[in-house]
Write a structure and sequence with these properties.
Residues 37-94 form the HTH lysR-type domain. This is Transcriptional regulator. Belongs to the LysR transcriptional regulatory family. InterPro entries: LysR_HTH_N, LysR_subst-bd, WH-like_DNA-bd_sf, WH_DNA-bd_sf. Strand 1 and strand 2 (90-93) form a beta hairpin. 52% of the residues lie in helices and 19% in strands. With 325 residues, the protein is of the alpha/beta class. Strands 3, 4, 5, 6, 9, 10 and 11 form a seven-stranded mixed beta sheet that branches. A two-stranded antiparallel sheet has the order 1-2. The chain has two domains: 39-124, Winged helix-like DNA-binding domain superfamily/Winged helix DNA-binding domain (Arc Repressor Mutant, subunit A, Orthogonal Bundle); 128-325, D-Maltodextrin-Binding Protein, domain 2 (3-Layer(aba) Sandwich).
Length: 325
């Protein structure tokens, strides 16, 4: 019992000492900005030392001489020592000013190195853009956006990874993409999003299919019970259709791209449900026929997505702005 109590007391004392050190460290760190001049003031002092003139230093830095004088006086008050002797013949550093100038030179050089490093990071970030997009957006919308981005950022290399909405989410969460685009009914877990547009799904068949000659709209229940040519599970189109109809019959054919689904429908394999964006040409040329549905609206949002808390920057932000233009 006595030993246990002693251990507890020692632990408490040690914790208190460490806590005291931490508190003092925080106090020092917190007050450092108030006790050390800012970079602008240091650059001004270095210019005065180099040019021997407060007015010349002010002109070099693009400020007025009264503003430069005020900044030097503020710096002197902050440090508690005189830094510059002013006379009609110019400005001369005091002994303390010469010492402070030497320290300031090291800090400014370190700041320049910091700035160069940060610029190198930005250059590396801006040199590439990795985009992941679900199939409809990748095939029918992204090409135009990327052409516009190329005009603005000709030196940025862009790679596009196309897949279903689930695959887009996986790539973003694994840091294999900088920005994604999906078409599903909800935002995948772990991602933030912004709606960039809207789309409508329509039922289509080849002209020879019985549905192409219907005089009345198709009932939602009949659509749900009919085997269709569909995208694979995980695709935005499949998610929207399944949610709208409350379930689907076993697919007639299951394919992994919008283009493949469309080709099968044009070939007469059976009816399908596709994005209105994907079938405009086929409807115009009557290779496909749109079949009205009576009591269901197959609409969906098109979304840009990115990992939660990591809003797009650099080229990804630029591309996002283009999608909204």
């Amino acid at each position: 019992m006595g030993s246990g109590a002693g251990s507890s007391t020692n632990g408490g004392t040690g914790g208190g000492t460490e806590g005291g050190h931490d508190t003092r460290a925080r106090q020092v760190a917190g007050s450092l900005a108030h006790r050390v001049p800012d970079l602008g003031a240091m650059e001004l002092l270095l210019a005065v030392a180099r040019l021997g003139s407060l007015g010349g230093a002010a002109r070099e830095l693009g400020i007025t001489q009264p503003a430069a004088s005020s900044r030097i006086r503020s710096m002197e008050r902050q440090l508690g020592v005189a830094l510059v002797d002013r006379s009609p013949r110019g400005s001369r550093l005091t002994d303390a000013g010469a010492l402070v100038t030497d320290w300031a030179r090291r800090i400014v050089e370190a700041a320049e190195a910091f700035d160069a490093g940060a610029q190198a990071l930005r250059d590396r970030r801006d040199s590439r853009l990795r985009v992941a997009a679900s199939m409809t957006i990748a095939e029918y919308l992204l090409p135009g956006w990327l052409v516009a981005l190329r005009a603005q950022l000709p030196d940025t290399a862009v790679s596009l990874l196309a897949g279903n909405s689930a695959a887009v989410a996986e790539r973003l969460l694994a840091d294999d993409a900088d920005l994604g685009f999906v078409e599903g009914v909800s935002v995948p877990t772990g991602l933030d999003s912004a709606v960039i547009g809207h789309d409508r799904l329509i039922v289509v068949t080849a002209p020879g299919h019985p549905w192409a000659r219907r005089r009345r709209p198709l009932e939602a229940a009949e659509l749900a019970a009919t085997p269709l040519i569909l995208r694979e599970k995980g695709s935005g189109t499949r998610q929207v259709l399944d949610a709208a109809l409350g379930g689907l019959a076993r697919p007639l054919i299951e394919l992994s791209s919008t283009t493949a689904v469309k080709a099968a429908a044009v070939g007469g394999a059976g009816p399908s449900v596709l994005s209105e964006l994907a079938v405009g040409e086929e409807l115009t040329t009557r290779r496909l026929v749109s079949v009205p549905v009576a009591d269901v609206v197959l609409a969906r949002d098109l979304r840009a997505v990115w990992p939660t808390g990591h809003r797009p920057t650099g080229p990804a932000r630029q591309l996002l702005s283009l999608t909204r233009a």
